Amino acid sequence: MKIVSIAISKKKGTRKTPVNEAFISKDHGLEGDAHAGKWHRQVSFLSSESIESAKEQGLDVTFGDFAENIATTGIDWKTLPVGTHVRLGKSVLVEITQIGKECHNKCAIYYKAGDCIMPREGVFARVLEEGKIRCGDEVHIEK
């Protein structure tokens, strides 16, 4: 289980831009990301397998297009219960706070990509321990 993409955006409701590494602050989220802050959805996750499945269905998408902060391989995020602790790299620890989300109106991502899988397959977390993460870092489910 590894991090395959890290992405940030300056504005909410837009596709995120992939970066090679990022600093994740305790009780805040990814530095420079519009969704970071003191709330329960500081970091968002999506599996690379979900993104690949969307591509196979004909969507022209890549990492960051669904506004996910971190894409991983080998984890079916939506099967992990709220409260699960996940270690990213050596130092970052997050706690899953929400699985999926309500999509009241079709957002800009839906209109650009043709669908948005975050409401169905995305997972959100708050940051318990901070540090730097990089693409290729290991991911471990701790509890």
Provide an overview of this structure.
Helices cover 13% and strands 36% of the residues. The protein is mainly beta. The protein has a single domain, classed as PK beta-barrel domain-like (M1 Pyruvate Kinase, Domain 3, Beta Barrel), CATH 2.40.33. A hairpin with a 3-residue loop joins strand 7 and strand 8. The radius of gyration is 14 Å and the shape is globular. The two termini are 15 Å apart. The mean pLDDT is 89.
CATH topology, by name, is M1 Pyruvate Kinase, Domain 3
- Fraction of residues in helix: 10-25%
What number of structural domains do the residues give? 1
Characterize the main sheet: 8 strands, mixed
User: What name goes with the CATH superfamily?
Assistant: PK beta-barrel domain-like
Q: What does the radius of gyration come to?
A: 14 Å
Oligomer: single chain
User: What number is the mean pLDDT?
Assistant: 89
Helix and strand element order = EEEEEHEEEHHEEE
Number of strands: 11
Q: What order do the strands of the largest sheet run in, or round the barrel if closed? A: 2-1-6-5-9-8-7-11
Shape: globular
Number of helices: 3
Cα distance, first to last residue? 15 Å
Instruction: Give the C-level CATH assignment.
Output: Mainly Beta
CATH architecture: Beta Barrel
Strand content: 35-45%
Q: What low-confidence regions span 5 or more consecutive residues with pLDDT below 50?
A: none
In short:
The protein has a single domain (2-141), classed as PK beta-barrel domain-like (M1 Pyruvate Kinase, Domain 3, Beta Barrel), CATH 2.40.33. Helix content is 13%, strand content 36%. The chain is mainly beta.
